[in-house]
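Q: Sequence in, structure out?
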Amino acid sequence: MSTLLEVKNDKSIKVVIWITTIVICLAVTVLQMHIFPVPDVIPSFIFKLPMINAILNGTCSVLLIFSLLAIKRETSLYTVN
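A: Exactly. Output:
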């Protein structure tokens, strides 16, 4: 059985999820309306952003796999003897 605190916590989490969903939908809608002007000169760092995104995604994937393996082995690199 769930306690009253768990039910309140579930409701608050659902409210946060709904608010986040609505804010993201509104942001996407506003950005697709092309309200903001396009810059005359494209900054040079823009072309490096996909590579940075790929590096971050790859790093996170490797760390998640190592974390999963550590959890399955029930050991940690930082255990204190």
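The CA atoms of residues 26 and 32 lie 10 Å apart.
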